[in-house]
Amino acid sequence: MSLRVFTRALASSPRLSASKFVASRGAFRREFSAECKAIVFEKHGRPLDVLKIHTFPLPDLADDSILVKFLAAPINPADINQVEGVYPLKPPFQTSALATETPLALGGNEGVVEVIDVGKGVQDFKPGDRAIMRHTIFGTWRTKAVATIKDLTKIPYPSSEITAVQAATASVNPTTAYNMLQEFADLKPGDWFIQTGANSGVGRAAIQLGRLWGLKSINVVRNRDDLAELKKDLESLGATKVITDEELADKGFRSVIKEWVGKSPIKLALNCTGGESTTNMARQLSEGGHLVTYGGMARKPVTLPVSLFIFKDITSHGYWLSRWSDAHPDEKEKIVNEIFSLIKAGELKDVPVDKWVWKETMSDEELLEVFKKGVSTYIEGAKGRKQVLVI
């Protein structure tokens, strides 16, 4: 195909327009702008009210940049809180970068991309490679982006071994569970930990990592109609015991827990809820135990009796993955790669997901409707299922 014909073909494409060609080392290399569709908001508020679709052109490919297309992006609690304006870390409102006069913010922090093209100065990535976001606040609820090597962590396995959805959900929940089990208490095989929200993405990952590391777990869930089925599911992942909030609150049930653990200590408690269940869970800690709070889904404060500090010498911590991962990108990459290896080996099972699929044939209205259905499912309570946008 001649250069003239190739340029004309690119220019006629509705998704990709040619802008220029440059000679490099005796060969022609293309530079182009791609059109991006993204979920954005121009003000904080109720997600179903403020989220909308925005289409804008991406900049031409520079020597050090990488053009990527998104394959999948989860809808995480932090993402929703950012839209609401109640999360400490918020995406910036932009104009020129999004080709808009009205400042807009891009939603989404976690996702997986495939490399479409790279600048001539990029050596570590090539077309066809897949990657996840190296930092937060990238804006992952979109179809395409121009990134740099500082933005991406390459996935070392092909799609036949790690699916797009698996990759898209590996860098937040499993990494959070991994760090909390490793960093706060000196856990040894045979030791116990206890956690609320055990059927969440973090909770399910903690159960499985605990099993792999020889740890025993007490897993607290809310009572529900399908409790027997949920218990069976968590036990199949490696949960030692599964109990309800009501059982945890029952003073008489403490003797049952003591019988389970025997002389082994409960060194660590993982809290994603707050409120009364966290207080009751902290009471189960052994002397010198550690309570780690990484979420507050009940939207209630953590209240701890003075006696736990004085007579049990427990320590209460907070854990925020966003702060840790942005400060330790290389360490996060090592952990994520280990998580990928566990997924590949079948040792770490996927979190249950609902897929919300964007198709090229959909109109903007249809794309927005699909995404809002995913958001609505999350808000109404997805019963431990992750909501994932698949593109």
TrEMBL record:
What reaction(s) does this enzyme catalyze? a 2,3-saturated acyl-[ACP] + NADP(+) = a (2E)-enoyl-[ACP] + NADPH + H(+)
Q: What is its main location?
A: mitochondrion
Q: Which InterPro entries match?
A: ADH-like_C, ADH-like_N, ER, GroES-like_sf, Mito_Enoyl-ACP_Reductase, NAD(P)-bd_dom_sf
Q: Where is the Enoyl reductase (ER) domain?
A: 46-389
Subcellular location(s) per record: Mitochondrion
What EC identifiers does the entry list?
1.3.1.104
Q: Which UniProt keywords apply?
A: Fatty acid biosynthesis, Fatty acid metabolism, Lipid biosynthesis, Lipid metabolism, Mitochondrion, NADP, Oxidoreductase, Transit peptide
Database matches in Pfam families: ADH_N (PF08240), ADH_zinc_N (PF00107)
According to its UniProt record, which protein family does this protein belong to?
Answer: Belongs to the zinc-containing alcohol dehydrogenase family. Quinone oxidoreductase subfamily.
PANTHER family on file? ENOYL-[ACYL-CARRIER-PROTEIN] REDUCTASE, MITOCHONDRIAL (PTHR43981)
Query: Per its record, how is this protein called by name?
Result: enoyl-[acyl-carrier-protein] reductase
Provenance organism: Myxozyma melibiosi
